[in-house]
Automatic annotation (TrEMBL):
Residues 198-209 have a biased composition (Polar residues). This is LysR family transcriptional regulator. The keyword Transcription regulation applies. The lineage of its organism: Bacteria, Bacillati, Actinomycetota, Actinomycetes, Micromonosporales. Keywords: DNA-binding, Transcription, Transcription regulation. It comes from the Bacteria. Residues 24-196 form the LysR substrate-binding domain. It comes from Dactylosporangium roseum. InterPro entries: LysR_subst-bd.
Length: 235
């Protein structure tokens, strides 16, 4: 059997950063593009934008991104939460503020892969956990608290930990991004899926040109005058 008998299926590569759930979008893709494999490419949030287009056609990434290199459509902004032991005194509150976190005096861990926008200077690198996963382990050991997007708190869930929303903390936004010179039909399909367009939506797609109208044919034997037909007289 020759290689051409089994051609390699078309593939659309999509970067996905930690915390982003794509199950629903993946199912929709398989329904609308069954002949094109959706390949999910895991990527760390800081590395994802730079991996397009060499490693992926588009990506579900965290903002901000370089708008000179990438197009980006913001999809949603996450709630920010503080992760803490289940027996911590702050669990008595349903929601918290940054001032209340400061009053408690517990160290706020800030991992090197932190994705929240910050205005203050970060602590020295040697004082920071390498990853969010490592920071969660330190929270479980009672070494401090961790402020992260809610999806990351769920991703690193542990039975001995819980979290509460921090109402005035910085928030992280997720976007669909793709290279400025890489807007293809498949990218447009993914845009439609994440934006909730129906399968019949034609927005953003090239439309077939309408066939030119054909001139009406004249009836054989010349043109008849409008009006009632004369009645035939009986014999």
């Amino acid at each position: 059997m020759s290689v051409t008998d089994n051609p390699r299926p078309a593939t659309f590569r999509l970067l996905v950063v930690p915390g982003v759930i794509v199950d629903r979008w993946s199912r929709t893709w398989s329904q609308r593009r069954p002949a094109t494999v959706l390949e999910l490419v895991p990527a760390e949030a800081a590395d994802a934008p730079g991996r397009m287009p060499s490693h992926a056609d588009a990506g579900l990434v965290r903002l901000p991104v370089d708008r000179d290199a990438l197009h980006a459509i913001p999809l949603y902004t996450e709630k920010t939460v503080v992760v803490m032991p289940r027996d911590h005194l702050l669990t008595a509150a349903d929601e918290l503020t940054t001032a209340e976190l400061a009053e408690i005096g517990a160290p706020l861990l800030r991992p090197l892969d932190d994705v929240l926008p910050r205005t203050e200077e970060p602590p020295a690198a040697e004082d920071r956990p390498a990853t969010t996963a490592a920071a969660v382990e330190l929270v479980a050991a009672g070494a401090g608290l961790l402020v992260v997007p809610q999806s990351l708190a769920r991703l690193h869930h542990r039975r001995d930990l819980t979290y509460r929303v921090v109402t005035d903390a910085p928030a992280s936004s997720v976007a669909l991004a793709w290279p400025r010179d890489g807007h293809t039909d498949l990218v447009e399909e993914m845009i439609g899926i994440v934006r909730g367009r129906t399968a019949n939506s034609t927005r953003g797609r090239s439309q077939p040109q309408a066939a030119p109208e054909r001139p009406a044919r004249k009836p054989a034997g010349g043109t008849r005058r409008a009006g009632p037909h004369p009645r035939r007289r009986g014999r």
